Amino acid sequence: MKDLKHLIYFENLLQQADNELVEQGRKDGKLALGYTCYFVPETLLNLPGCFSTRLRAPNTGSIDVGTYYMTNKICSYTRSILERGIEGGYNYLDALLSSETCQMMHRGHEHFELLGLVKNNPKFFMSMMDVPFSDSDNAVDHYEDQIKTKLLQPLHDVYGVDISDDAVRKAIEDHNEISAIITEIGDLRKLPIPPITGYEFHVIQLVSEVCPHYLVMDKLRETLEEVKKRAPEKKPWFRARIVLTGSEIDDPGFTKLLEDCGAMVVADRYCYGSLPGREQIEIKDGETALRAVARHYLRTSQCPRFMETERSTGRREYVKQLVNEYHADGVIYTQMKFCEFWSYERVLGVHVLYEEMGVPTIGIEREYTVTSAGQLRTRFQAFIESLEIKNIQGGNK
Amino acid sequence: MADKKIMDEQNRFIEGTNIEKHREWRGLKDTWYDYTQWIKLLVIVMKFVAISPFRIARGVLEYRWMGSYLAAFNMRDRCMEGLRGPALQVANEQLNTIMSATTTQIGQMMKGDRRFGDNDFAKKIVLLEQTMPPEIMAGFPNLIPIPLEVYQGLLNCYMDQNACPFYIDVMENAGLPADSCRLSANATGVAINDDFPKIGACVIENNMPCDSSTMNSQVIDRRLGLPSLPAEVPMRWEDRNTDKYSLVQMKRIIKFVEDSTGEKFDEQAFWDVINRHNKEVSNEMEKWEFMQTPYSPIGGTVGALYHATYFTFSGGRNPAFVKTDEKVLKIAKDCYEQKLNAFPKARHRAIMWGGPACYWPQFPNWLYNCWGILVVAAMDSFSGNVTIPTTSLDDALVGIARNHETGVMRRHLTGGWQHLVEFWGEAEKFSCDMVILNNDITCKGALGLTGVILDQAKDKKTRLMMVSNDMFNHVTISRADMRKEVNDYMRAVMQEEPLDASLCDYDDYEGW
Fold it and tell me: How big is chain B by its Cα radius of gyration, in Å?
């Protein structure tokens, strides 16, 4: 396929957290609001005068200092974020909005406060929300209250951010606009021979998360039009279609590694992915805009911390649904090493998908950086080969 | 050179095991007293067997974990090592109450086990996951709340260090990484191996204390096949804004229990239990007053164990704990009035913090006997301790939620970094010169603050000794490994020699 016009530009934006669009956003007088977890609604970090920037630690090398503070038994994503923070890589932040949802990231974010990691901004603050473990109406009430008191109010008190219903509605419009573009691009992956690769989509999705929306929107729109008109390959360039699911993946190199082995990642159901993340937020009749945001994030999340049986089994059903919608041949469950949530979810997911739903599935553990590429490549190749054989033998109908 | 000739306590054991050749000689009076208490334990065990002899015998044959309870006598003896006079009396009073309460519940589990034939008794049991406090069941006097995972994990591990690695292996064979919390992995392994008794009308899952506990509940839920409800109490428990949600959760649980069992919430019974819970808390606070002085007979292994037990098993339901508290407080008062030093070998007073090595509950006894380090209190003692308001039902339910939120391990691992480092303040309050930090190598919530704690230690006069453990799995970090860490620290940092060198290094890998 012909190269995408802005792909290299997008790739360059992912080379550092403080990229040129983030810098531009700061120069425009906007507040840079950092977050990592889906439970901190990205939508609300794009209130007028603010922009969201989901934290990554690209090109991570040594994480020795992060390891000193957290030991080598904490996930390397958390340690990498901490290390980058200690190096001053997030000095551009005006606030870090967080939630006590995963123990390790929660501890990692506490270090921003404990070690005073963001320099030169006396107004910088870190705020931590409590997030419920279910999505009942009462849970939505609680979540909404926490968003109000731990996210909106501090932003208003410290920086005078407009947190009115109108402002939240505007933020929802922004969310819906960027999400519509990403979803339309992502839906093209359902085609028999998609005009976009999983790697390209991963880059585009990440760019939409780490850059100020208003600065990247035009190029994303342009890319959508380009992809729609793009002539796909005559024959599939891949040997198997894969749903990639699991914990945090913010390295497009991981998707590239998988696709270099002959797969195409047709669905990205992982933290930092678009499923979920890029759905439209609908404001129901009689509902405040904030309520709509709270309901949306709590009910679309596929985080394993939801304990109720319906949500727990629903997660596996959602992956199966993706397999059907995206015509996938198999599923890969990934888990960041040391992640407690996803270690259990991976074990359970692989068992249920494979044994009970009949979907070829494997589970892998990985580090934040693709350091063990050789081992992963071998496993991916074997899995893809098995899927291919299954297809040739007509076993996967 | 240390006084090996004087003590030589380790030679009392058969080499390679922790089985005694003969009982510890404590002088005529204390040896006789200890023997009578041992007999008392024998009576407790006989009472346990009498609950349902046939089913209990079948349970021993059916469940791998049940066999480990045969080591209860050994566990009891090890908890008494080195204790004399009032310290020995306090430990015995508390441990016998623990044994009585827990064996009764094991008997009840076997009595209701549907595996050995269905009966109505099984429906009277409501299972509470992990170390969830039972106060929420206070309004159901006809139902029996039983903790689900504790008997097959925590207590089991106390009895026999070889009990849990099997279940952990089961879970690792299923694909769970070896770095996952051992407590949760063990319980999930029990579920996968189908080794939970088939009891209960319903199960209340919960999200305490951590991520792995949240997740293992979901696997266990699939295996139990009982109606279930997660008791999801907030993590940011110091935030008063979370109270409203806690209250809703507590009311959901009550309704769920009513719907699942057909029982109705009895408010009079509720207040009786809550008042007794508050008495347990006030007794604990009174004990702390004595523990802060040099004349306290409360310390070592059993104190924190006792606290964790009444937190998890009683919650005001079992009057035996209040009675025992009264006896203990009387002994403590006498000791204080006579200015009696109940732990004469103590050279250091220490607070023990973090997830302990459950396969060596008697670690504090060893610290005392080998190095003269008296563990005055442990982290579990500081869990719960919430006086539940009696002003209204809603206030009480919020108080129950608060007790739950600040429960064993949960209080210190959630809600903010400041809770984990409370040990500095507690050490000062209890006049301790040392903190022993259990470095549980799978506890992510604690490990995540390691560097901060080490940084803080540089500015403190209180000594910080970190001792690694693998919570339920002695295979990775054995008791001998733990001893070595302590020995190295005491010699290199504290520049001290042991009180009893025979205890420094010995082989008990194959023993209970």
Answer: 22
Q: Which candidate from B217, B245, B444 shows the least CB-CB separation from A74?
A: B444
Burial of B120: CB neighbours in 10 Å, binned 0-12, 13-18, 19+: exposed
Q: Is any Cβ of chain A less than 8 angstroms from the Cβ of B219?
A: yes
Extents of the domains making up chain B = 9-503
Which one of A106, A130, A133 has the shortest CB-CB distance to B214?
A133
> Within chain A, which residues score under 50 in pLDDT?
397
Q: Could you say which residues from 365 to 384 on chain A have a Cβ atom under 8 Å away from some Cβ of chain B?
A: 365
- Supply the DSSP string of B127-185, one letter for each residue: EE-TT--GGGGTT-TTSEEEESSTTTTHHHHHH-TTSHHHHHHHHHHTT--TTS-HHHH
Q: Which of A99, A100, A117, A133 to mutate to test the interface with B (most CBs of B within 10 A)?
A: A133
Q: Which of A73, A142, A307 to mutate to test the interface with B (most CBs of B within 10 A)?
A: A307
Q: pTM for this structure?
A: 0.95
Vertex B460 angle, CA B455 and B465, to 5°: 75
Report the length, in residues, of chain B.
512
Task: Tell me the pLDDT tens digit for each residue of A373-393.
Answer: 888 999 999 999 999 998 888
- Rounded to an integer, the average pLDDT of B392-400 is 97
Secondary structure of B237-271 in HEC code, one letter for each residue: CCCHHHHHHHHHHHHHHHHHHHHHHCCCCCHHHHH
Judged by a CB distance cut-off of 8 A, whether residue A135 touches chain B is: no
Query: What confidence score (pLDDT) does residue A392 get?
Result: 85
